[in-house]
Amino acid sequence: MAKCANCGKTTTFGHNRSFSQRATNRKFKPNLQKTLVMEKGRAVHKVLCTKCIKAMAKSA
Fold first, then answer.
1. Of 26, 43, 46, 47, which is the most exposed, with the fewest CB atoms less than 10 Å away?
2. What is the domain count for the chain?
3. CA–CA dist 47, 4 (Å, integer)
4. Which tens digit of pLDDT belongs to each residue from 39-48?
């Protein structure tokens, strides 16, 4: 399943709205990337959303 390993962000649901305001279902998927993260002195592969990657880069 599409899920961020850090914040737990997952797919959310909403509606497409046409000109006539007819609602059809749609998905909003998080922007997930496979990254290499240092955790307790070891390099670990994780799937993170881009917001988490950006926040980790700022704190490091």
1. 43
2. 1
3. 6
4. 999 999 999 9
Q: How far is CA 39 from the centre of its chain?
A: 20
Which residues on adjacent β-strands are paired with residue 33?
A: 48
Determine the structural domain holding residue 37 and report its residue range. Answer: 12-59
Mean pLDDT, consecutive 10-residue stretches, the chain (60 aa), reads 92 97 97 94 96 91
Amino acid present at 37 = V
Task: Give the CA distances from residue 8 to residues 16, 22, 32, 41, in Å, rounded to whole numbers and listed in that order.
Answer: 25, 31, 11, 23
Element (H, E) at 51: helix 50-59
**Helix-then-strand count for the chain, H and E:** 1, 4
